[in-house]
Amino acid sequence: MEKRLMKGNEAIAEAAIRAGCRYFFGYPITPQNEIPEYMALHLPQYGGVFLQAESEVSAINMVYGAAGAGARVMTSSSSPGISLKMEGISYIAAAELPCVIVNMMRGGPGLGGIQPSQADYFQAVKGGGHGDYHMTVLAPASVQEAFDLTMEAFEIADYYRNPVMILGDGVIGQMMEGVVLREPVKLEELKEKEWATDGAVNREPNIINSLFLDAVKLEEHNLKLKAKYDLMREREARAELYKMDDAEYAVVAYGTSARISRSAVDEARKKGIRVGLIRPVSLFPFPEKIIRSTIAKTRTYLVVEMSLGQMIEDLKLALNGKRPVCFYGRTGGILPLVDEILESIELMRRGEGIEADCCLS
Amino acid sequence: MKLTAAYPESLTGKEFHYCPGCTHGLIHRLIAEVIDELEIREKTIGVAPVGCAVLAYEYFNLDMQEASHGRAPAVATGIKRVHPDRVVFTYQGDGDLASIGTAEIIHAANRGEKISVFFINNAVYGMTGGQMAPTTLTGQRTTTSPLGRSVESSGYPLKISELLSILEGSVFIARVSVHNPAHIMKAKRAVKTSFQYQLDGKGFSLVEFLSTCPTNWGMKPVEALRFAGEEMTKYFPPGTYKEVE
Questions:
Q1: Is residue A86 within 8 angstroms of chain B, CB to CB?
Q2: For residues B88 and B40, is the Cβ–Cβ distance under 8 A?
Q3: Over the Cα atoms of chain B, what is R_g?
Q4: A2-235: which CATH number, 3.90.280.10, 3.20.20.370, 3.40.50.970, 3.10.20.310?
Q5: In chain A, domain spans
């Protein structure tokens, strides 16, 4: 197995190529530019196409066309650019087109800043664009995981015919770590997409569409999409449990904030606090069952996010009022520090900060 | 006996929903006839717009994609880059192409994207009920220019063919009219030329059709044809604006 030192953004780009992605449409924005730059350099070597579009809006619609034509295709951007793609993502989900979209989140709202953030959680997991739909959302916490999840994302996208988002942030995209590179998929072994528009030879025409003027038909279509989301909830929900076997207290965090929280959990353990970490890896579907399985032992939960509290809502829904939930968050591009999270863990143990749901900084 | 005319194989046969006197159906048929004549039906992929022709995918007997408003050239780019050996066209109205989709059409043309664009200019938003279009003529009354289009407030009707013909990436740009049989035959030849350029791998081409909208113009079909032929052509002169050897 080949091992390489890579930036998270480069690892995602390499993983996409190894997953059989030969088409990339994007528009520059910090902090994800290494992805398009890597694709611009490497895709032509595989006979693929890199195209710098005139806007994020055009890029996502090129993805729509290429996905509808049967290709494995990807785009990437960061928060403000992802907002621009949201109309197209709604169409892609509605037309059931597989593709992978990377969001290396930066501080918002508005033009915000370019420092790492997790403030696009709502947008990613609740739909983001208009209508009844969901993307599948995966949140890596290391460069290796960014690589692995990107390769898997193409499989999930094709299987469910749904857009899959890799939700990272500036830290995941920019830091360098060693990556074990998995073998590339064999393009000739990929399942044929009989629904794709590649020319109606000896068959009825294929139509890629999201228009249903008849409300009865649109409701049927939306129920069909829901059945896919329910299947994802059954099969694709995943989370890492760290030191949760005997945990009276749990920190719940994903991505970069989970990495920092892990160190805080280790520090708290040294002080004799029985605390563990629940790290959701899939954000949609949210790993509700895994979280509920911890209720028997765990008394209180602390959510740590690089936002003012977004995933906390899904945790509360999962717990359904059965356990109190505390929150610690930093926003605008500020990273939570280990000591700050440790202090929040200690407050949680003393029974303070509960019900307040406030930022404890 | 020789068969001189038949229903094109490249149309499904589904009855058009277009209003009486509207020329969308006629233009659909011209495109379908050319696809049949060039024997490219099985390798052609069309992209439908948002607007009156939103259901074009039900009428063309081809693989089709339905794009979001204005983005058809971007969608077509995605298809063509994946399948460079197929023939890809978009079918777009004036609101779709000349208003919300100006970035997409200019950049597709400028990249020399090897697609054919059929641009239906009827100077009004038809589907939404007769609002002002970017190509609405100066002084023309619409529901959002009830006193007539004012240049001071809304600027000038946009001349897409002239605009795109100056770009290096475009190879064939023509404006045609379909208000009488002679012009219809010219329009059909332009459609064929556009596809031929694409088949030869040459670059971006666009055919702009001056089209009618009797319903929203408040005219009888015959009056509408006269308006297209006599009034629209004054500001939007038919002709070949670019033809690269």
A1: no
A2: no
A3: 17
A4: 3.40.50.970
A5: 2-235, 239-349
**What's the pLDDT tens digit per position in B219-229?**
999 999 999 99
Domains belonging to chain B, first-starting first, are 24-243 (3.40.50.970)
pTM of the complete model beyond 0.95 = yes
Q: Are B92 and B40 in contact (CB under 8 A)?
A: no
* Residue A228 to residues A225, A231, A232, Cα–Cα distance (Å): 5, 5, 6
Closest chain B residue to A197 measured between Cα atoms? B63
Inspect the interface and report whether the beta carbons of A69 and B64 lie closer than 8 Å: no
Q: How many CB atoms lie within 10 A of CB A351?
A: 12
Min Cα–Cα distance to chain B from A291, Å: 39
> Would an 8 Å CB–CB cutoff place B151 in contact with chain A?
no
pLDDT at B31 over 50: yes
ipTM of the complex: 0.97
Q: Hey, is the C-beta of A354 within 8 angstroms of any chain B C-beta? A: no
B63 CB near a chain A CB, below 8 Å? yes
**Phi and psi for B183 in degrees, rounded to 5?**
-70, -35
Residue in chain B closest to A71 (alpha carbons) equals: B82
Write out the CATH class of domain A239-349.
alpha beta
Do B45 and A198 count as a contact with CB atoms less than 8 A apart? Answer: yes
